[in-house]
Design goal:
By secondary structure, the protein is of the alpha+beta class. The longest helix has 12 residues. The strands form three sheets. It has a seven-stranded mixed sheet. A six-stranded mixed sheet has the order 8-9-10-11-13-12, covered by helices on one side. A two-stranded antiparallel sheet has the order 4-5. The chain has six helices and 15 strands. A hairpin with an 8-residue loop joins strand 8 and strand 9.
């Protein structure tokens, strides 16, 4: 058995919102990851500009992590607002700049005004003329500083009213007590039909034969999430969104099989609209001897 309080693996998850706040001001994602000091980090909405180096790969190079990445959505990242306020983002009812309507046919899009100052803008929406932006894509990434034994990905498809094509990344890492599979994902919102993706993900997860971790922005609260993933347990319980005044937990770290949770926590706001979550885990004696 591991000594009391010792951990074999620390896992963190962080939706980085392209590395900018709601005004488009950049924050140092690499510094946040260094502060997390986790063996495996799952990043959602990691930004890669066209013709440039991606955020996840830059972090991996700076901090010595292996990086596995999956593109989920192409789009634009706007320039920083010239006159940002003190809040994390502009007030929802008092936005600067022209307002436009999404050009698709969904009822929600037809009624919801979107500010051109939004720092992230999917390529499926028409970018308003005259606004500065950077083309690129958003990615899901799993970073590891432990030896990686195996990698795999699954395509979870794109739901009808979702802007992203979702997926999951699995990496098997070598801990001092044997291999552990870590799966990172970023699911669609419940209102877009995410149970369809969870069902496909569940069938894929059932093939894992070693202790496993599932981490990411699930866009869903804990109880209905684990109800759809029998045998998985929550390692972190706490409010992680929105970062400035959290009232919900869409960011999760779940464990399955021979893993003991030593500690799970929601960390302080770090620049994104989501707070990072982190869990310290130990491989149980049963799993070690299997």
């Amino acid at each position: 058995m591991p000594a009391p309080g010792s951990s074999d693996l620390t896992v963190a998850s962080f939706n980085v919102h392209s590395g900018v706040d709601g005004w488009g001001r950049r924050f140092d994602v690499a510094a946040v990851c260094a502060h997390l000091d986790a063996d495996v980090i799952v990043l959602q909405e990691s930004w890669t500009p066209v013709g440039g180096k991606g955020m996840a790969n830059e972090i991996g190079q700076q901090l010595g992590y292996f990086v596995s990445e999956l593109t989920t959505c192409a789009g634009r990242l706007s320039a920083a607002h010239p006159h940002p306020g003190k809040r994390w983002k502009p007030p929802s009812r008092r936005l600067d700049g022209p307002r436009v309507v999404l050009p698709d046919r969904t009822r929600a899009a037809a009624k919801t005004p979107i500010s051109t100052q939004s720092p992230t803008w999917p390529s499926t929406r028409r970018w308003p003329h005259g606004t500065g932006s950077e083309r690129g894509c958003w990615n899901l990434a799993v970073l590891s500083r432990l030896p990686v034994l195996h990698t795999d990905t699954i395509d979870l498809g794109q739901l009808r009213y979702d802007v992203a094509r979702r997926g999951a990344i699995r990496i098997d890492v070598e801990t001092r007590r044997g291999p552990v599979a870590v799966v990172g994902t970023h699911l669609a919102h419940l209102s877009r039909g995410s149970p369809l993706q969870i069902r496909r993900l569940r069938r894929w997860l059932e093939a894992i034969r070693v202790p496993a971790v599932l981490a990411g922005d699930m866009n869903l609260w804990g109880p209905p999430l684990v109800a759809q993933l029998p045998g998985w347990r929550r390692a972190v319980k706490g409010r992680s969104w929105p970062a400035w005044f959290p009232h919900s937990q869409p960011d999760h770290i779940l464990v399955h099989g021979g893993l003991d949770v030593i500690e799970g926590s929601v960390l302080s706001a770090a620049g994104s609209d989501h707070r990072p979550v982190l869990a310290r885990l130990a491989v149980s004696s049963e799993a070690e001897g299997a």
